[in-house]
Amino acid sequence: MQFLAPIALGLGALGLGLALKVVADDERKFDGGATWISQGGTPPWAAALYDGSVRIPARGLDRVTPALLGVLRHELAHAFVAERTGGNSPTWLQEGVAQWLEGVDLAAVDARLAPIAARKQLLPLISLEGPFQGLAERDANLAYAQSVSAVGFVLRQRGEPALVRLLSALGDGLPSEEALPVALALSYPELQQVWETTLRLGAERR
Predict the structure, then answer these.
(1) Of 203 and 173, which is predicted with more confidence?
(2) What confidence tier does 1 reach under pLDDT thresholds 50, 70, 90?
(3) Which of 23, 29, 79, 199 could be bridged to 59 by S-S, CB 3.0 to 4.6 A?
(4) pLDDT confidence band for 22 (50 / 70 / 90)
Protein backbone atom coordinates (compact mmCIF):
# COMPACT_ATOMS: atom_id res chain seq x y z
CA MET A 1 0.00 0.00 0.00
CA GLN A 2 3.01 2.33 -0.38
CA PHE A 3 1.29 4.06 -3.31
CA LEU A 4 -1.26 5.54 -0.89
CA ALA A 5 1.35 7.23 1.31
CA PRO A 6 1.69 10.57 -0.56
CA ILE A 7 -2.04 11.17 -1.04
CA ALA A 8 -3.36 14.36 0.53
CA LEU A 9 -6.38 15.98 -1.06
CA GLY A 10 -7.65 19.55 -0.70
CA LEU A 11 -11.21 20.67 -0.22
CA GLY A 12 -11.26 23.26 -2.99
CA ALA A 13 -13.77 26.02 -2.41
CA LEU A 14 -14.09 25.29 1.31
CA GLY A 15 -10.52 26.48 1.64
CA LEU A 16 -8.91 23.84 3.84
CA GLY A 17 -6.47 21.04 3.06
CA LEU A 18 -6.04 18.03 5.31
CA ALA A 19 -3.69 15.07 5.23
CA LEU A 20 -5.60 11.81 5.27
CA LYS A 21 -4.39 8.79 7.22
CA VAL A 22 -5.27 5.64 5.30
CA VAL A 23 -5.45 2.30 7.10
CA ALA A 24 -5.40 -0.63 4.69
CA ASP A 25 -7.70 -3.56 5.41
CA ASP A 26 -6.16 -6.46 3.50
CA GLU A 27 -8.98 -8.80 4.48
CA ARG A 28 -11.55 -6.97 2.37
CA LYS A 29 -11.56 -6.51 -1.37
CA PHE A 30 -11.67 -3.25 -3.31
CA ASP A 31 -13.26 -4.04 -6.68
CA GLY A 32 -13.16 -0.66 -8.40
CA GLY A 33 -15.97 0.98 -6.48
CA ALA A 34 -18.91 -1.07 -7.77
CA THR A 35 -19.18 -3.43 -4.80
CA TRP A 36 -17.58 -3.57 -1.39
CA ILE A 37 -17.10 -7.02 0.13
CA SER A 38 -17.94 -6.38 3.75
CA GLN A 39 -16.80 -8.26 6.78
CA GLY A 40 -16.99 -7.24 10.40
CA GLY A 41 -18.80 -4.06 11.31
CA THR A 42 -18.93 -2.28 7.96
CA PRO A 43 -22.31 -2.59 6.16
CA PRO A 44 -22.35 -3.83 2.54
CA TRP A 45 -23.21 -0.36 1.22
CA ALA A 46 -20.32 1.42 2.98
CA ALA A 47 -17.39 2.18 0.69
CA ALA A 48 -14.98 2.94 3.50
CA LEU A 49 -15.22 3.73 7.17
CA TYR A 50 -14.02 6.99 8.72
CA ASP A 51 -13.26 6.88 12.44
CA GLY A 52 -10.42 9.40 12.55
CA SER A 53 -8.58 7.58 9.80
CA VAL A 54 -9.89 5.92 6.64
CA ARG A 55 -10.20 2.15 6.83
CA ILE A 56 -10.35 1.09 3.22
CA PRO A 57 -10.63 -2.37 1.65
CA ALA A 58 -7.20 -2.94 0.12
CA ARG A 59 -7.16 -6.43 -1.33
CA GLY A 60 -6.75 -6.09 -5.11
CA LEU A 61 -5.46 -2.51 -5.02
CA ASP A 62 -2.07 -1.81 -6.58
CA ARG A 63 -2.44 1.79 -7.77
CA VAL A 64 -4.50 4.96 -7.31
CA THR A 65 -7.62 4.68 -9.47
CA PRO A 66 -10.36 7.26 -10.11
CA ALA A 67 -12.70 5.21 -7.93
CA LEU A 68 -10.17 5.22 -5.11
CA LEU A 69 -9.64 8.97 -5.43
CA GLY A 70 -13.41 9.47 -5.17
CA VAL A 71 -13.53 7.43 -1.97
CA LEU A 72 -10.60 9.34 -0.50
CA ARG A 73 -12.18 12.72 -1.34
CA HIS A 74 -15.36 11.49 0.35
CA GLU A 75 -13.51 10.45 3.48
CA LEU A 76 -11.36 13.60 3.55
CA ALA A 77 -14.61 15.54 3.63
CA HIS A 78 -15.62 13.61 6.74
CA ALA A 79 -12.32 14.58 8.33
CA PHE A 80 -12.89 18.22 7.40
CA VAL A 81 -16.47 18.35 8.70
CA ALA A 82 -15.51 16.57 11.92
CA GLU A 83 -12.70 19.07 12.51
CA ARG A 84 -14.73 22.13 11.51
CA THR A 85 -17.72 21.20 13.71
CA GLY A 86 -15.93 19.50 16.57
CA GLY A 87 -17.93 16.38 15.80
CA ASN A 88 -21.20 18.29 16.17
CA SER A 89 -22.71 17.57 12.75
CA PRO A 90 -25.85 15.68 11.75
CA THR A 91 -25.08 12.63 9.65
CA TRP A 92 -27.08 13.90 6.66
CA LEU A 93 -24.87 16.99 6.51
CA GLN A 94 -21.68 14.95 6.95
CA GLU A 95 -22.63 12.53 4.19
CA GLY A 96 -24.05 15.23 1.93
CA VAL A 97 -20.87 17.30 2.02
CA ALA A 98 -18.76 14.15 1.54
CA GLN A 99 -20.69 13.06 -1.54
CA TRP A 100 -20.67 16.59 -2.98
CA LEU A 101 -16.88 16.80 -2.68
CA GLU A 102 -16.59 13.27 -4.05
CA GLY A 103 -18.27 14.54 -7.22
CA VAL A 104 -21.65 12.82 -7.07
CA ASP A 105 -23.98 13.86 -9.93
CA LEU A 106 -26.49 16.07 -8.10
CA ALA A 107 -28.84 16.32 -11.06
CA ALA A 108 -29.05 12.54 -11.33
CA VAL A 109 -29.71 12.20 -7.59
CA ASP A 110 -32.46 14.83 -7.71
CA ALA A 111 -34.04 13.09 -10.70
CA ARG A 112 -34.14 9.86 -8.73
CA LEU A 113 -35.65 11.55 -5.67
CA ALA A 114 -38.21 13.64 -7.55
CA PRO A 115 -40.90 10.93 -7.87
CA ILE A 116 -40.34 9.94 -4.22
CA ALA A 117 -40.85 13.56 -3.23
CA ALA A 118 -43.98 13.72 -5.40
CA ARG A 119 -45.37 10.76 -3.44
CA LYS A 120 -44.38 12.54 -0.21
CA GLN A 121 -42.24 9.59 0.84
CA LEU A 122 -38.96 11.34 1.61
CA LEU A 123 -37.51 10.83 5.05
CA PRO A 124 -37.46 13.91 7.32
CA LEU A 125 -33.94 15.29 7.43
CA ILE A 126 -34.22 15.61 11.19
CA SER A 127 -34.59 11.82 11.33
CA LEU A 128 -31.23 11.47 9.56
CA GLU A 129 -29.14 13.11 12.27
CA GLY A 130 -27.86 9.82 13.67
CA PRO A 131 -25.52 7.24 12.11
CA PHE A 132 -26.63 5.41 8.98
CA GLN A 133 -24.75 2.21 9.86
CA GLY A 134 -27.80 0.54 11.38
CA LEU A 135 -29.99 1.10 8.33
CA ALA A 136 -31.03 -1.57 5.86
CA GLU A 137 -29.47 -1.14 2.42
CA ARG A 138 -32.60 0.35 0.81
CA ASP A 139 -33.10 2.87 3.60
CA ALA A 140 -29.39 3.70 3.66
CA ASN A 141 -29.34 4.34 -0.08
CA LEU A 142 -32.29 6.72 0.30
CA ALA A 143 -30.64 8.44 3.26
CA TYR A 144 -27.41 8.98 1.32
CA ALA A 145 -29.30 10.29 -1.72
CA GLN A 146 -31.35 12.69 0.39
CA SER A 147 -28.23 13.91 2.17
CA VAL A 148 -26.39 15.00 -0.96
CA SER A 149 -29.57 16.36 -2.53
CA ALA A 150 -30.26 18.55 0.51
CA VAL A 151 -26.66 19.81 0.57
CA GLY A 152 -26.89 20.51 -3.16
CA PHE A 153 -30.08 22.48 -2.57
CA VAL A 154 -28.37 24.57 0.12
CA LEU A 155 -25.47 25.27 -2.24
CA ARG A 156 -27.77 26.33 -5.09
CA GLN A 157 -30.02 28.49 -2.95
CA ARG A 158 -27.55 30.01 -0.48
CA GLY A 159 -24.09 29.33 -1.92
CA GLU A 160 -20.93 27.87 -0.45
CA PRO A 161 -20.52 30.68 2.14
CA ALA A 162 -23.81 29.55 3.71
CA LEU A 163 -22.49 26.01 3.99
CA VAL A 164 -19.35 27.31 5.68
CA ARG A 165 -21.55 29.37 8.05
CA LEU A 166 -23.55 26.27 8.92
CA LEU A 167 -20.43 24.28 9.72
CA SER A 168 -19.09 27.18 11.79
CA ALA A 169 -22.35 27.48 13.76
CA LEU A 170 -22.23 23.77 14.51
CA GLY A 171 -18.58 24.20 15.48
CA ASP A 172 -19.68 26.85 17.99
CA GLY A 173 -21.73 24.15 19.67
CA LEU A 174 -25.18 25.08 18.42
CA PRO A 175 -27.59 22.16 17.89
CA SER A 176 -28.61 21.77 14.27
CA GLU A 177 -32.11 23.12 14.98
CA GLU A 178 -30.47 26.42 16.00
CA ALA A 179 -27.57 26.38 13.55
CA LEU A 180 -29.81 26.12 10.47
CA PRO A 181 -31.70 29.40 11.08
CA VAL A 182 -28.47 31.19 11.99
CA ALA A 183 -26.65 30.06 8.84
CA LEU A 184 -29.44 29.64 6.29
CA ALA A 185 -32.36 31.67 7.67
CA LEU A 186 -34.37 28.43 7.45
CA SER A 187 -35.68 26.21 10.21
CA TYR A 188 -35.61 22.43 9.83
CA PRO A 189 -39.28 22.29 8.71
CA GLU A 190 -38.73 25.22 6.30
CA LEU A 191 -35.65 23.60 4.78
CA GLN A 192 -37.51 20.31 4.37
CA GLN A 193 -40.50 22.04 2.78
CA VAL A 194 -38.66 24.19 0.24
CA TRP A 195 -36.26 21.39 -0.70
CA GLU A 196 -39.10 18.88 -1.20
CA THR A 197 -41.12 21.45 -3.17
CA THR A 198 -38.18 22.03 -5.49
CA LEU A 199 -37.85 18.28 -6.06
CA ARG A 200 -41.59 17.91 -6.73
CA LEU A 201 -41.53 20.74 -9.24
CA GLY A 202 -38.67 18.98 -10.97
CA ALA A 203 -40.79 15.81 -11.18
CA GLU A 204 -43.67 17.75 -12.71
CA ARG A 205 -41.40 19.18 -15.41
CA ARG A 206 -40.21 15.73 -16.46
Answers:
(1) 173
(2) very low
(3) 29
(4) low
* Dist CA 16 CA 9 (whole Å): 10
Q: How many CB atoms lie within 10 A of CB 99?
A: 24
Residue 117: count other Cβ atoms within 10 Å of its Cβ: 21
Q: 52-93: per-residue pLDDT in tens?
A: 666 666 666 667 677 777 777 777 788 888 888 999 999 999
Cross-strand pairs, 54: 22, 50
Cα separation, 150 vs 93, in Å, equals 8
- Would the pTM of this model clear 0.85, i.e. be above it? no
User: Tell me, what amino acid is at 21?
Assistant: K
Give 7: exposed, middle or buried? Use CB within 10 Å, 0-12, 13-18, 19+. middle
What is the amino acid identity at position 47? A
Q: Are 100 and 152 in contact (CB under 8 A)?
A: yes
| 24 membership: H or E segment, kind and range | strand 22-29
CB 184 within 8 A of CB 156: no
